[in-house]
Amino acid sequence: MSDAAIEVESLGRTFKVRGGQVVALKNVDMRVGRGEIVGLLGSNGAGKTTLTKILATLLLPSSGTARIFGHDVTADPREVRRMIGVVLGGDRGLYSKLNGRDNLRFFAMLAGVGRRGLAERLDAALDRVGLTEVADRAVETYSKGMRQRLHLAIGMINEPPVMLLDEPTVGLDPVEAERLRRDIAGLRDGGTSVLLTSHYLLDIERLADRVVILADGEAAADVDVAEFAKLAGYTAIVTVRGMGRPPEFESGQSQFTVDDLSESGGLWTLRLRVRDWSVESFGSLGSALGGVDILGVDVSPLRLEDVYSHVAAQLAANGPSKAGEVHP
Amino acid sequence: MTTLDLASARLSWWRTVEAIRHGWREHGVTYPPAAVVFATVPKGVLQIVFFTVLGGVVAGPDQRQYAFVGGLALALTTTNVVTVISVPFADKYFSTFWRIRTGDVPAVVVLYARAVPYLLVAFGLFIVEAAIAAAILGLEGLAVRVLPWLWIFAIMACGYAMLGIAAATLTIAKRADALAPNVLGYLTMLCSGAFLPPGQVRWVDAIGSVLPVRHGLAAVHAAMDGGPWARQALLELTICLVSAVLGLFAVRVQARRATRYGHDDFD
Amino acid sequence: MSDQRIAAPSSPDAGVRESLTPGDRVRSAAWTFLTAARTEQRAMQGNPLVLINGGFLPIALLVISVETRRPTSGRAAEIVVSVMLTALWACTIWTSGGVLRRERTYGTLASCVCGVASPTVILFGKSFGATLYGVGMTLATTLGTVLVLRLPVAVAQPFWIAVGLVIVVVSATTLGALMSCLFLLTRNGLIWSGALMYPVFVLGGLLLPPDVLPVWLRWAPQLLSLHWINEFLSGAIGGGLSFTPLSVAVLLTIVYGVLAWFTYRWSIDKARQRGTLDYA
User: Fold this and answer.
1) Is C198 in Cβ contact with B47 (below 8 Å)?
2) N or C, which terminus of chain C has less Cβ within 10 Å?
3) Check: CATH 2.30.180.10 for A6-230?
4) What ipTM goes with this model?
5) Average pLDDT over all residues of chain B
6) Which of B20, B25, B101, B257 to mutate to test the interface with A (most CBs of A within 10 A)?
7) For A280-291, how does the pLDDT look when each residue is reduced to its tens digit (9 = 90+)?
């Protein structure tokens, strides 16, 4: 059996539409290792869901190969399906007039779960996602978060070694989203490999070991999360407010890059990007601001949103190149 | 890899029973008892009454008796058995077909197994409706004579159910919940020989000869008249089996379509 | 705590609404009605339901009614009118009677009943739009089948037939609006509305004349406007014109309309109490 949980090589998918065709994926290469969580990022239409559906054997690729623990998704879909749990989420995909337990039981049977100990397994799955108390209520009475948790329980019911999660936290409030993230983090603790697509950088930040960015159907970046943060070229934003003459920062000065300077009524606000925020850089900042009337200083650590915006802007300007070649 | 009891996962009796159980639960929420008792049963009764009386109005007392037997077949199929179409429709409506087609049990088995409770309830309701209608129309004696041939009605019901599932599955992109049962219902009304005896309109006979109900009804009429009925009954059984194969074909077509286009919404 | 109440923010057109004349209100309601009708017609374009119920059923009923035993000329006209109205009733259940069902499916029900415009005017408008389609399809198919089957039907009073058809449209609109309320009152509206087909087939005095009904049930057809329209149209075709059935049909249509108005309002309140407006 292959060492990698998920292997994708030169994967492509084209859809025929009226008047032409849409290339959803072209030449995607990526890999998810055992027990790893990989975040799949990309703008709308980048191909994230298409890739997920190919791996879930819901969609055939037009070219290339995709394998789950060495089993080809096209040639060996049955084996693949035994190894994956899929969560497409959303309001649909459940028999709303039936209760959560009935839904879980039916889909467990379809997923190949045996009869022995089924009731206990259902109870454990419901308990794991915190739906025990509402298990016997009709799904149409569930909140969005409850439905997402039920989707997750269904995806996990056959204890697959690989989970494919497509935007699992979409539409959830912060408390529900955090709860779901804890559930997903628990998967990795159990040795499950996860491919997670999301628009929410917080999901990636909290859960992912690596990040793959899809742009225009290609994998434009494939880096560790820690390295991903460096792609922006800075680690913190410093906002300085003062009055009188604003300080001057020479271009090319090692630590700081001016992001924005606004002045109004004798007051100014300066935004600086700092490459490596540390005690020393704080000292350098103090020196640079010497002789200036300071009203306040705020330091904000870099958010992944900022990184992604930077990367997306670069991709929009330069187009995707080989994976990993997005530069700060 | 985690261990799991997948050893004999494929097509086991247990899984089929689970699918039947799921169908039973689905039926219960889709057709609640109150709706069944106060809406479906009266509809079936009145359907039998309507066609029987209409037969008498347009063509006299003999036609009335003929139309009663035909009305039974219409009530069985177009009012009761037609509910099986809810099974493929539910998967469209709730977007659950993708789990069924990628599940460990063949999709057509899941569909047919879920349809079993619908079929059983439909047949039970049909018996009740027939009894009530016979009493209203004063045709109890005729109804008793039909009793030994209920097994032929059961074959008609199975054939109609499977053709209904096949039709609904194939038309699932286009308002299957209303289109499929209505088309099938009107074709059955017109071409099954339920009201219009065979030999009256040739094109009607031609269409009806390949649909469920027609041969079964001919067998029932022949049997009640003391004539040979086996050939017609066999033809009805054949159409039932062909309908089952059509259902299999329909599911495969939709599954392939979904895999080709990547969505199961069928919109 | 202060007992001051916070004044409701004045809306930009509050002053305008207060100064609306009765004529303005009527024009506004007419505009709402026509827009709703047009929207429903566009939504129903290509709807196979209309084709099946308005197209198929008249063919099926006509063929089985006349090919079992060929009718005489006078009887043929009666059968044709009865079949047309019977089919129209079945079509009404699915088209104008299904307006709110379709709104539920699309997820637009809440917007229709909780907007600024009168929900009842909207419902009647949509029901009218749907009915026009159904009536048109049923009429066309019935006429086509009459021609193909070469039934001996002659039309004596075409103007009054047209008048009768207008009443058919209005009557079906109000009946459809009334039936639509089922979809607010129950989650199983489809089952209940489907069950309404055969009671009218049997007791409506259309294909089955009232004299085949038990004596104690012969009053039932008199409550159905379609029965009176059936009598009027049969007379208009056959040459025995009488305005009494037309008048009764119009009266019953008004009663249905009033009933639909009150039932709809009550149904909306019930649905809002139960919180089921959002359920699909």
Assistant:
1) yes
2) N
3) no
4) 0.86
5) 89
6) B25
7) 777 888 888 888
